[in-house]
Amino acid sequence: MSLRESLVLLMICTIWGLHFVVMRTAIGDFGIPPIFYAATRMSLVALIMMPFLSWHPGQMGRVLIGGLGFGALNYAFMFPAMGMTTASAAAVAVELYMPFSVLLGVIILGERIKGWSWLGISLAFVGAVIIGLAGPGEAAGPLFAVGIVMMACAALSEACGAIAVKLTRNIKPAQLVAWFAVVGTIVLWPLTVLIETDQTAVFAPDIRWKFAAAVLYSVLLVSIVAHGSYYWLLSRLPIQVVTPSGLLTTVIGVAGGLLILKEPLSIGLTVGIAITLTGVAIVIWRGNRRATKMAKMVTPMP
């Protein structure tokens, strides 16, 4: 990995990690309706990415399922959870995406995993349970454990979306992002109308600039800059080099919660975070070893 690629990867992880701080501040402190926030974000992304929309005969079912996982249900769980949990705990809980993806690969795709992977999956879920039971009290409120469960549901939604995307063929990342944004827009707006109230309060003079800043961060930096740069890295580097960036993102998210938001870190929460990240690291390590081994077994085309 060159110096430029390393700096781009660091930029991506920093943007993604600090997004937990932005979401927690916007939803938990400013009181912005979470699903309304998510729906606004996806609508703007859909408008920006509209030129990339393209119909793919025979594959649209998988694309739409991917959109439900990556553009709708994940945010329907994640954004409300940010008002119940802390940025640092949420950044760790969403890493359950990796163990969920491996389990779904076994169930749906018939993939096989061995002892180390099962150990990593077990540790990740045990750590998440410890995090949920070791809530930081007033820093998150009485629904902290519920927020952790909802973050796990968001991770599961993304894992389902990943399996659907894995089954697609010859669809460019920008086209997938465009469809995910469209699906998110279609699903999230009815949800905010049915579940939330007083959405127009975000346009009050004392909060509208805060809402605009949070949405612009989510749309421009997270969805456009970070995701676009991530796909650029994937096109240049082996996937096993890029995949571990999720752990760096989590570390930055935890650090942002502790240093910027001054979130407390109890002994139980520390233990839960350490166990979860250890489990996720093992899952990534074993997955990368399998990918490297499979790549060596493939005979190059002349």
Automatic annotation (TrEMBL):
Residues 7-132, 147-284 form the EamA domain. GO terms for cellular component: membrane. The chain crosses the membrane at residues 7-23, 35-56, 63-82, 88-109, 116-137, 143-164, 176-195, 215-234, 241-261, 267-287. It is found in: Membrane. PROSITE patterns: PUA. It is a multi-pass membrane protein. SUPFAM superfamilies: Multidrug resistance efflux transporter EmrE. Its main location: membrane. Signal peptide: none annotated. Keywords: Membrane, Transmembrane, Transmembrane helix. Belongs to the EamA transporter family. This is EamA domain-containing protein. It comes from Algimonas arctica.
